[in-house]
Amino acid sequence: MVAHVARAARIVGSTDHRAYGRKVKREPLSLFQLTPASLKMHPIVTRLLVVTLIYWVLHFIGRSRHRSTLSYIPFVHKSWWQPWESISSVVERGYASISKKQGLPFRIAYWGQEYVVLPAKYLSDLRHADKDHLNFFKSMGDVLFLKFWIRSLFDTDRMVYTIKKGLDPHLNEATDLCIDELKSAIQDELGPCDSFTSFRALDVFGAITHRMASKVIVGDELCRDPAFSKASQDYFRGHVMTGYFLLLIPSERLRNILSRPLSYFQRSRKRRALGLVSAVMSQRLEAKTSGSNSVEKIDCIEWSLRIKDDFPLSPGEDLLW
Description:
By secondary structure, the chain is mainly α. It is 58% helix and 3% strand. It has helices at 2-13, 43-67, 87-102, 123-127, 136-144, 158-167, 171-190, 201-217, 220-223, 226-247, 252-262, 264-290, 300-306; strands at 106-110, 113-117. The protein has a two-stranded antiparallel ribbon with strand order 1-2.
C-alpha cells in the first residue's frame, strides 16, 4: 500500500501526466530558464520588500544628515562581519586604533545617537565644563526619546535639589529604612521556604529592589502598595520598550510625527503611577496646612513639598500630561 501511494505521489509531482508507468528524468531548473510567470511573488512578500527598501533609504538619509556636522571626527563602525558586536567592543577598538595611537577623539553610534569618545587628555577640560553640557538626565532622555512623554521634567533642577536638600542630609536614616525594608521584602517575596522552591530570579530581585527604592522615594503609604508597584514597574519597563520602538523609525521627522500615537500607552502608564503619588501628596499638603502632621517623614515626597516654593511649576505645566 505504501509503495502504491509513493508511486502515485511521484506521478502527480511529475510535469508530464503521460509519465504514468514509466520513470521520467527531471532536469533541475536553471536560473536562466526562469520564466516571467515563475518570477511572480506573493503580494505580501512584495509589500515587505518595498517597506524594507523604504526603511533603509530613510535610514541612510537620516544617518548622512546627522553625521554631516561631525564629519571631521573619525567614526568607528561595528564590524560588518559581526553585526552583533557589543558597543563596549567598538569603544575598545576605537580607543586602541585612534585615541591611544593618535590622541584623537572618535565617534560611535549607539541607540540612534552619535557620541564622541574623548581621550584622557581632555579630562581637565571636562572638569571645568558647564553642568548643562554634562547633563546626565538630558543624555538619558535623548537615548530613550523621553521628551515625547516626559516633556519638561528634565529641564528643571527640582529633582537635583530634592536629592541635595533632602536625601544627602538624611542619608544615614534613609539607609536604615532601606535595610529594614529589604528584610521585610525578602520575607514577603520568598516566604518561609520550608522546602525547595524555585523562583524567577529577575522578578524577585526586581520586586525587592523596587520596594527598597520606593521606601525612600514615595514613603510608607505606597512602597508596599501592589497597585503602585505594578503601575510604576510597568512605567519603567515602558521606557525601554517605547524608546526601542521609536528607535526603529529611521527618519527623525517621521519619528516626531509618529511619536504621539506610539507613546500613548507610556503616557497612560505615567498618569496612572503619578495619580497614586499625587493623592498622597494632596493628603500631606492638607495635613501640613491643618497642622496635624508634626512628624517629618524620610522620603522624596516630603522633601519635594519642602522645596516647592523654590521650584514652582511653570504656568500651564502639568506633570500628569
